[in-house]
Amino acid sequence: MLWQLIVKPRQGIVAILMLASVDIMAAGLVLPPLNVDPENTNDEDSRPCQYTGDFKQERHLQELENPLVSTGSFLFSCNRGLLWEVRKPIADSRVYTSQKLNFRVRSNARVTQLHGIADSRTATLLLNFLSGDTTALAKDFDLISDAESPGKLILLPKNRSVKKRLTQLIVQQELDTVRITIQAPSMGDVVISIDNIAPFTTSDLSTCRQFSQQPQPNCSILIQPTNYVATPLDRDR
Q1: Cα(116)–Cα(135) distance, rounded to whole angstroms?
Q2: CATH node for 2-220
Q3: Residues 143-193: pLDDT tens digits?
């Protein structure tokens, strides 16, 4: 059931899954039921537009016997953007806003505005995916479904430069967890498990304050990102 709520096996609807693989390893990959047919808008109003979830990331490197593991939670709002909090082993947060202003927040509450192209692309594609903009997402991957495994999807990147870093993505439903395997030989395979997806109906700010382990400044950035825009003389706050 969770798999149907997250993604339906048609078109390139999970194209976004690779985006954070290089930096934050794919925040918010699972999500509300998407409108997989751009010409059919019947599901638009019923699709959740704000929700929270938990994740566990395992990075497998040939040099290490055991994988590197990190865990955390995320909060998404169509109107505000995405708050992605790594909580263990080292607290570190990303805030990707709908105003195209993106930030990193360290555990000491130091805020750094992110200006790089990679961060901008990651933010745009993640927000498109989480909000269900399948028209924008279907441009990046070839999608392969397995008739014998209806809960499984394989995504192959179209872009040549991406192919050099990313072999494929495998998305698999396992009970109440979505398991995403990112196969990227140059940086080691990454496995992300996402669960506990829960929509919320209260205000973004009040929900964020209850959700976040560092509500100040994380929630303030999500709600009013322009207050944290750095000047050329002050890139870090």
Answers
A1: 25
A2: 2.50.20.10
A3: 777 777 777 877 788 888 878 878 887 878 777 777 878 888 777 888 888
CA distance 15 to 125: 8
Phi, psi of 12 (to 5 degrees): -90, 55
Which amino acid, 221?
I
Output b/e per residue, 186-212; b: 16+ Cβ within 10 A. Answer: eebbbbbbbbebeebeeebbebbeebb
Dist. CA 189–CA 182, nearest whole Å: 6
Neighbours of 177 (CB within 10 A): 16
Could you report the per-residue pLDDT of 39-53, keeping only the tens digit for each?
A: 444 444 445 688 888
Q: Is 161 exposed, middle or buried (0-12, 13-18, 19+ CB in 10 A)?
A: exposed
In Å, what is the CA distance from 98 to each residue of 37, 74, 225? 23, 15, 9
Q: How far apart are CA 174 and CA 166, in angstroms?
A: 23
Average pLDDT, the chain: 75
CA atoms within 13 A of residue 134's CA, in its CB half-sphere: 23
Count CB-CB contacts under 10 A for residue 89: 9
What is the rounded CA–CA span in Å between residue 104 and residue 61? 25
Residue pLDDT, tens place only, 77-108:
989 999 999 999 999 999 999 999 999 999 99
Q: Which residues pair with 142 in a beta bridge?
A: 156
What sign has the CA pseudo-torsion 55, 74, 173, 13? negative
